[in-house]
Amino acid sequence: MSDEDDDAPAVSLGEQTPVEGAPLARVTSRLTWPKEKSEIDRLEGDSVIRTPDGPRELSTVLGAIDETYFQRHQEFERHVRDVVGTGPIPTADE
Asked: How far is Cα 56 from Cα 66, in angstroms, rounded to an integer?
């Protein structure tokens, strides 16, 4: 293999489309588990996450969740997705 071709990307990535908010997985990866809902709100409540209805503040989503304690991040993400839904995320232009 030649080192001359290392400057070009191996796969063409195309144009970047801006999306508002952070992926839920990025927010949950910053936390250690288990965790209380109030502690998640204190640490990450002001984070804006991506949802099918557009960006939403995590604190608002937490207010709609009845569970107060999460053993694992998968459990937490399931509860969040129950509130915000799943589906395509709109781009910042839409």
From this structure: 18
| Angstrom distance (rounded) from CA 14 to CA 35 | 39
Tens of pLDDT along 23-71?
A: 999 999 999 999 999 999 999 999 999 999 999 999 999 999 999 999 9
pLDDT score recorded for residue 4: 55
Question: What 3 state SS string does the chain have?
Answer: CCHHHHHCCCCCCCCCCCCCCECHHHHHHCCCCCEEHHHHHHHHCCCEECCCCCCEEHHHHHHCCCCCEECCHHHHHHHHHHHHCCCCCCCCCC
